[in-house]
Amino acid sequence: MTLGEAFLGELILESEVTRRYLESVPFEKKDYKPAEKSETLGRLAIHLAEIMAWWSACIKKDKLDFIDFEPKDINSTAELLAYFDQLLEQAKNDLSEVKDEEFDKDWSMTYGEEVLFTLPKKQVARTFCMNHLVHHRAQLGVYLRMLDIPVPAVYGPSADDEHVTTIQNFRKFIIE
Predict the structure, then answer these.
(1) Which among 30, 25, 135, 19 has a CA at the least distance from the CA of 83?
(2) Out of 15, 41, 55, 100, which residue is the most buried by the measure of CB atoms under 10 Å away?
(3) Each residue of 55-101: pLDDT tens digit?
């Protein structure tokens, strides 16, 4: 199994859960913030979707420059899901085709001429693509809980959801 295939397997499992979280986002409450320093619900949800684009940026490029970054303007759950699905499909395609040696190359996050960091692509994929996604999905779960919106199951059932969990799907992925 290549590194791309391994990451792809994880991404498929995590994206199933992430999509269920995004389906729960009520855009009529997109300006909700649990605290003054917090991001809005709408911005957090859009960020969760746009993290999918980081996979392709990591695989296809040697840096991601935020100097001209403009978050996508999304105003409905349907738009959010379409955006997420589009970026996820590209990430899946790129992961299925990438060669292992690509992950040994360095990758930088920049803001114009300022280099925020440089790491091997393998570490970027794990930390800034996968772990970052899981981190912000957990934040979104807190927002949903505070808004009294049922929180989808993740690695086991939640208090609101007895859905087939990622762990059960992971077992299927490992066995097959």
Answers:
(1) 19
(2) 55
(3) 999 999 999 999 988 989 999 999 999 999 999 999 999 999 999 99
